[in-house]
Amino acid sequence: MDLAAMRAYADELTARFEKLRAGATEMRARITAVEATATSDDGFVTVVVDYRGHVKRVDIDPRIYRRPDSKRLAETLTSTIRRAIAESNRLMTEVASEHVPAEEFQTYHNLELDTIFGKLDEQFDAVSKGELR
Fold first, then answer.
1. What is the pLDDT of residues 115-125, one digit of tens each?
2. What structural domains does the chain harbor?
3. Residues 6 or more apart whose Cβ sits within 8 Å of residue 50
4. Residues 27, 95, 32: CA angle, nearest 5 degrees
5. Which InterPro entries has this protein been placed in (predicted)?
6. CA angle, corner 97, sides to 23 and 39, nearest 5?
7. What is the pTM of this model?
8. What is the edge-to-edge ordering of all strands in the sheet holding 45-50?
């Protein structure tokens, strides 16, 4: 890679970093404010989760007790919680994608360690060989 290309790449990285740094505080505030709600197909269970996927609230309509079925209730709760978590992840990715590529955010958010360390290894190899990507 010639000197001009290396400078162009360094300028690109610097610009991306500055954009990320400038928006990081606002992005963090918006991400940590994410709350997602999901309601079961039958409408009897509503779940609210925060940005971490932690359950903040579960509302159960008393009509659910007209047909007591603990197995069905457990399945309904589980699927509704999963849908709320998926919506939380979608909302966070939407916010983060204004500053970082959505795919990259999801990789780090999901802690896909093999992918993360693989990318780092590639970057270290490139630097050690005098190549920049």
1. 666 776 777 67
2. 20-100 (3.30.1310.10), 102-133 (no CATH)
3. 34, 35, 56, 88
4. 55
5. YbaB-like_sf, YbaB/EbfC
6. 115
7. 0.69
8. 35-39, 45-50, 55-60
